[in-house]
Specification:
Blueprint lengths: L5 H11 L3 H10 L4 H11 L4 H4 L6 E8 L6 E8 L2 H4 L2 H16 L6 H11 L4 E8 L5 E7 L5 E9 L2 H4 L2 H17 L11 H14 L5 H19 L5 E2 L2 E5 H12 L3 E10 L5
Antiparallel strand pairs: 1-2, 2-3, 4-5, 5-8, 6-7
């Protein structure tokens, strides 16, 4: 049998839409006969993935994976066509495996697995986005996936000591903070991270609402409305959902004093299925 060339593989991929690895295997099995290779792919159901590729995949779930030492974590959104499939055990397992592989290797080629899953489930599947976080120094990564997998959060919590970072109190706090973010959807960690265009927009709205007021009062009115916006949108300034008497910043300070360490939220990522990245 003559060697299978790259052009042969690409030609078969163009004709069937199957993954490169599946195409090469089919060509090897057919001794280079492209028509027989197409037949092999169709029998396996792999070639049918091409027909499904153009179909809308607006449902799905967000999967997560954390390293064993909690120094790195990932969120991955995997989409399908129907909510019924999004709840399918095979699809959920596939999404979890995608997260595990991408955490280990961000450049992992998952096309063959995706195509195989399309053929198995019968719907178009997209691995649409992912985000990886790791603490800057001493700290840990925590995650939370809401029931059904439609919303998930990844957070890095910094600690001044390794002992504190590994304590159960800090781990429980990190989980609570993730659940809070899932519920409240803050814009960013602190007000200095709010995008300038959002601040300008809120200021413009506040000025319009303050129109007609005495000039000396407008500045205070605008600042008051901006402060309210920051309190609602910035994670550290939000009231903790489980204890509204404490802001997130206050909760971090309170817990830090209890365990003898300084705690800080470094970054967070919140994914919701179907939202714009």
């Amino acid at each position: 049998m003559s060697a299978i060339s790259k052009d042969d593989v690409l030609n078969l991929r163009e004709k069937t839409g199957a993954g490169l690895i599946d195409c090469k295997r089919a060509l090897v099995e057919s001794n280079g006969d492209i028509d027989e290779a197409i037949s092999i792919l169709r029998k396996k159901g792999v070639a049918s993935a091409a027909k499904k590729a153009g179909r809308d995949a607006g449902e799905g779930i967000v999967a997560q994976c954390l390293s064993e030492d909690r120094t790195k974590g990932i969120l991955v959104e995997v989409n399908c066509e129907t909510d019924f499939v999004a709840k399918n055990d095979d699809f959920v397992s596939f999404a979890s495996d995608v997260a595990r592989q991408l955490l280990a290797n961000p450049d992992a080629d998952l096309e063959a697995q995706r195509t195989e899953q399309v053929a198995k489930i019968g719907e178009n599947i997209r691995i649409s986005r992912s985000s990886t976080l790791a603490p800057n120094a001493t700290g840990l990564v925590e995650s939370y996936v809401h029931t059904g997998g439609k919303v998930a959060v990844l957070l890095t919590l910094g600690s001044s000591t390794t002992e504190a970072a590994n304590s159960e109190n800090v781990k429980l706090l990190a989980k609570d903070l993730c659940m809070h973010i899932a519920a409240t959807s803050p814009v960013c960690v602190s007000r200095d991270e709010v995008p300038a265009d959002l601040v300008a927009k809120e200021k413009e709205i506040a000025l319009a609402q303050a129109e007609g007021k005495p000039p000396q009062a407008i500045e205070k009115i605008v600042q008051g409305k901006l402060d309210k916006y920051f309190a609602n949108s910035c994670f550290l300034e939000q009231s903790f959902v489980k204890d509204p008497d404490h802001s997130i910043k206050g909760l971090l300070e309170k817990t830090g004093k209890e365990i003898g360490a300084e705690l800080s939220v470094e970054k967070f990522v919140r994914f919701q299925v179907g939202e714009e990245a």
